[in-house]
Amino acid sequence: MLLKIKNVRKTYRGPLRRGPVVRANDGITLDVDAGQVYGLLGHNGAGKTTLVNQVVGLLKPDAGSIELAGVDLVAHPGHARQVCSLQPQAQLPITGLKPRQAIDLIGGLRGARRQDVEARRDRLVEALDIGEWLETDGQKLSGGVKRLVSFAMAAVVPGRLVILDEPTNDVDPVRRRLLWDAVRSLADEGAAVLLVTHNVVEAERAVDRLAILDDGRVVAEGTPAQLKADLEHELRLDLSLEPGAAMPAAASFVLRFKPNGSRAQAIIDSGRAASAIAWAQDLRSRGVVGEFSLTPASLEDVYVELVSNTDRRPGAAPELGPGPSREASHAHAA
Fold first, then answer.
1. Domain tally for the chain?
2. What's the pLDDT score for residue 289?
3. For the chain, what is the mean pLDDT?
4. pTM, two decimal places
5. Cα–Cα 20 to 30 A to 315, which of 99, 140, 221, 295?
């Protein structure tokens, strides 16, 4: 494994060292290999960015170890900044620079030849479809274009480990797809990619493996298929009500029914698919439902089950006691 994180713990205290101890990371262990897109999935405050900042040497763990290709990054944090590329969660300040200049500057700082940087930059600009903004001052760019430029800055001379912290924030749907293709290309070219996100739907399409974090702990880890295995016998029926229609009662075969405004979700056993479709079609014929869809359980369903019901988490860690964990907001460029 290229990146090995073992039993990493990081705690904080409140301002002026008052208040309860906040456990941002509590015994996190995971491995990331070259050629792999590895997702860190969790809500805001789950501990994702705190872990990233320890990997790149911006924070020191209270306990545990972090190794990259056999080098102890806790003992040698400067090494991480030499061999890692980071797209931080916060927007990089490129005011006064044009995207072409910003990308080329990072490539030069990472020691690549000018010709190689320019060729790589041109391929990224084409892949992300941002050529029309290449000569625009950074302060005039939209948030989404800035995110794409930030990704190109991290990818123009990728390190052995590329860390992307919420790379799709503010990016439009079309270019978001292009960005995910570029992320996949980084791994296919041999880099290990550590992807930090709270977007469950996109994570399912993009990652090879992932860890779900909650309150600073890994509550599940594996491939998307492995994590969904416990729910493979379930289907999700999504209902969209007609305007003014009353919420229907759940059919007798529905395992769990989740009304939400003008929408509802019914979880059913996969063997009752025909019954579910017949029920939804009857609701539509009576003007109660306008649209419906029947789909297998998704990674989002797994995520909700894991983070919303501690007692049902497979292999859940013991409760930490009083004091919620929160993720420290240290998003800096390496």
1. 2
2. 97
3. 88
4. 0.81
5. 295
Query: Among residues of the chain, what percentage have pLDDT more than 70?
Result: 90
Q: Is the pLDDT of residue 282 over 60?
A: yes
* Residue 164 in domain: yes
* Residue 154 belongs to domain with CATH number: 3.40.50.300
Q: Give domain status of residue 317, yes or no.
A: no
Segment 188-218, tens digit of pLDDT: 999 999 999 888 888 888 899 999 999 999 9
Per the structure, the complete domain to which residue 14 belongs is given by 3-228
Do 240 and 156 lie in one domain? The reply is: no
Instruction: Please answer whether residues 17 and 318 qualify as being in contact, where contact means their C-beta atoms are separated by less than 8 angstroms.
Output: no
Domain assignment present for residue 315? The answer is: no
Instruction: Please compute the mean of the pLDDT values over residues 36-63 and round it to a whole number.
Output: 93
Burial 166-205 (b: 16+ CB within 10 A, else e): bbbbebeeebbebbbebbbbbbeeebbbbbbbbbbebbbe
Note whether residue 262 is domain-resident.
Answer: yes
